[in-house]
Design goal:
29% helix, 9 helices, 6-stranded parallel sheet, alpha/beta, 15 strands
């Protein structure tokens, strides 16, 4: 899948490129499934510029076809998953060995691909950005999306209480099935007032907000004193510049804009997060919902559906 010019989903086109080959420190992998993420739409639109033309996507899972020089711990035929290998919307991709994680036996490519980027993001949010403690009440926006479902499950596993926001009755059902204690349909109820009602006016310890522009003000108003607003994405658009005095007025609250790269920067931290994530999956404590599987040729439709908020769970491209 190629992007020759930035723009809408229609710029995604199926094309042929030379077969890749692994250099030293790299693996050549046959892609079994590639994850579709909002950051892919930012690259496609040019919000985060990349040299043209390029193959989008960075997440997936598949089978090792060849091992480059100086690589240890991997062999042909191994199943691996990754969250940071540019060009993953393809039949084959070169994956840095340091970015590959051995997929545990019994975990299918679909599940592994769907778990990596969002699962690792959810892990750092609940363990490092704000370490959820038993009894904490948290607000999760877009609770029926791939990120929201994972966040909800991981917060519950740490003993927290989840208030989720969704747009429809169907999505409310999914959020509750994932463990959400309370669900606010923001299309019918102002979520700020809903949070106040549900917390007796106290607010929540942390808001996990991947929506951005349309939810930011309400997220800030939903925090308890000295609460944390973790703004980890901007699916509705970028948040305008913020006067720091607003954090004081909101109750000496904290605002952070974290990124996955800074939480898997060392091999040790990357392995720790992957190990805990896949142990939760294989142990049945976390369920991965695949909301849609699209042939690679239908990448434009996957992007359209994702940006149109018509999806639940994780979207995958199948080469």
């Amino acid at each position: 899948m190629l992007v020759r010019a930035t723009g809408g989903p229609e710029v995604l086109e199926l094309g042929k490129v030379d077969a890749p080959a692994p250099a030293a420190g790299e693996l050549l992998v046959a892609v079994g499934a590639a994850g579709v993420n909002y950051i892919d739409t930012y690259h496609r639109r040019g919000v985060y510029p990349r040299d043209l033309p390029f193959v989008p996507g960075a997440e997936g899972a598949g089978t090792v076809l060849a091992v480059g020089a100086d690589v240890t711990g991997f062999a042909e035929g191994d199943h691996v998953a990754w969250a940071d290998a540019p060009g993953s919307y393809a039949q084959q991709v070169v994956v840095p060995a340091k970015a590959a994680f051995p997929v545990p036996g019994g975990v299918e490519d679909d599940t592994a691909a769907a778990a990596m980027l969002q699962g690792l993001t959810a892990h750092y949010l609940v363990t490092s950005t704000y370490a959820v403690k038993p009894g904490d009440t948290v607000l999760v926006h877009a609770a029926a999306g791939g990120m929201g479902l994972l966040l909800t499950q991981l917060v519950k596993a740490r003993g927290g209480k989840v208030i989720g926001t969704v747009s429809t009755r169907e999505k409310e059902t999914l959020a509750r099935e994932a463990g959400a204690d309370e669900v606010i349909r923001y299309t019918e109820t102002d979520f700020v007032q809903g949070v106040k009602d549900l917390t007796g006016g106290a607010g929540v310890a942390v808001v996990y907000d991947g929506v951005g522009r349309t939810t930011f003000d309400g997220s800030l108003a939903s925090l308890a004193r000295r609460g944390v607003l973790a703004l980890f994405g901007a699916s509705s658009g970028a948040v305008p510049p913020v006067d720091p005095q607003r954090l004081n007025a909101a109750g000496s609250v904290f605002l952070t804009r974290p990124a996955l790269a800074h939480h898997i920067a060392t091999p040790e931290e990357y392995r720790w997060r992957c190990d805990e994530l896949f142990q939760a999956i294989t142990g049945g404590r976390v369920s991965i919902r695949v909301g849609g599987r699209y042939p690679l040729a239908d990448a434009a439709k996957a992007h359209t559906d994702l940006e149109g908020r018509r999806t639940t769970g994780k979207l995958l491209l199948i080469p």
